[in-house]
């Protein structure tokens, strides 16, 4: 029998540090939408550790969705839903590929790990715009990865990684914290809570502002 599961070494290294941040963020019954779930290892790890939360993984790539679902099946996790075909570049997640029952609740958190630096800036724009539509008021957009601060890299290893990314694709690259913060502010998010993470990464927690009063 073929095993569709993919394995990402980085997921093994950073999953527990990210889980620690999630533990402090999520209520016991939180509904979490993950964008660009990749292999599915993160979602499976978090769902196993937080059994009262519901995790909705997604990825635009069919092979990765197969891996995500294989991880859920292998783990026997009832709180990890089948992967959705969502793309951060889409104009509206509620359109063509938003194949979710109409009764799905608004998300308490939208989680996106290590994506915006290996995608065009338009993916970050789509992610933030659609997260603002999908989150409940007071919900959190959680971004994880390397970021520049004050137009400078936080470590020589990040600078080297950025050069490698841009050589592979000119549209890729480590994003400036200030640019991401401004993008989120334009979509109605508060200034982020910034959590220093291992290996020169950051967790950025953007809380969606309260409803606008008429």
Biggest beta-sheet profile = 6 strands, mixed
> How much helix, percentage-wise, in residues?
25-40%
Q: How is the largest sheet built, in terms of strand order?
A: 2-1-3-4-8-7
Distance between the termini: 58 Å
**Helical segment tally?**
6
**CATH-assigned fold name:** Rossmann fold
| Strand content bin | 15-25%
Order of helices and strands: HEHEHEHEEHEHEE
According to CATH, what is the class? Alpha Beta
Q: Can you say what the CATH homologous superfamily is?
A: Vaccinia Virus protein VP39
- As a whole number of angstroms, the C-alpha radius of gyration is 17 Å
| DSSP E strands, number | 8
CATH architectural label: 3-Layer(aba) Sandwich
Q: How many structural domains can be distinguished in the coordinates?
A: 1
Structural class: alpha/beta
Q: Please mark out the parts with pLDDT under 50 across 5 or more consecutive residues, or reply none.
A: 96-103
* Assembly classification: single chain
Q: Identify the overall geometry.
A: globular
Structural overview:
By secondary structure, the chain is α/β, with parallel strands linked by helices. The protein has a single domain (9-207), classed as Rossmann fold (3-Layer(aba) Sandwich). Helix content is 36%, strand content 20%. The protein is built from 6 helices and 8 strands. It has helices spanning 9-25, 41-49, 62-75, 121-134, 156-168, 177-186, and strands at residues 31-35, 54-56, 107-113, 135-145, 147-148, 175-176, 193-197, 201-207. The strands form 2 sheets. Strands 2-1-3-4-8-7 form a 6-stranded mixed β-sheet, sandwiched between helices. The protein has a two-stranded parallel sheet with strand order 5-6. Residues 96-103 have low confidence and may be disordered.
């Amino acid at each position: 029998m073929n095993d569709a599961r993919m394995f990402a070494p980085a997921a093994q290294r950073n999953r527990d540090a990210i889980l620690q941040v999630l533990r402090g963020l999520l209520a016991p019954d939180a509904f979490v939408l993950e964008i660009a779930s990749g292999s599915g290892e993160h979602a499976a790890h978090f769902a196993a550790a937080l059994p009262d939360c519901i995790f909705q993984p997604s990825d635009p790539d069919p092979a990765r969705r197969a891996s995500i679902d294989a991880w859920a099946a292998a783990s026997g996790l009832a709180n990890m839903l089948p992967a959705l075909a969502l793309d951060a570049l889409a104009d509206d997640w509620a359109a063509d590929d938003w194949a979710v029952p109409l009764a799905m609740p608004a998300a308490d958190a939208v989680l996106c790990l290590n994506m915006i630096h290996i995608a065009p800036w338009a993916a970050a724009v789509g992610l933030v715009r659609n997260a603002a539509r999908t989150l409940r008021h007071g919900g959190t957009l959680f971004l994880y990865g390397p970021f520049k601060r004050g137009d400078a890299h936080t470590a020589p290893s990040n600078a080297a990684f950025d050069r490698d990314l841009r050589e592979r694709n000119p549209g890729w690259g480590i994003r400036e914290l200030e640019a991401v913060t401004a993008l989120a502010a334009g979509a109605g998010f508060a200034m982020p809570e910034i959590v220093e993470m291992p290996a020169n990464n950051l967790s950025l927690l953007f809380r969606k502002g309260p409803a606008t009063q008429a």
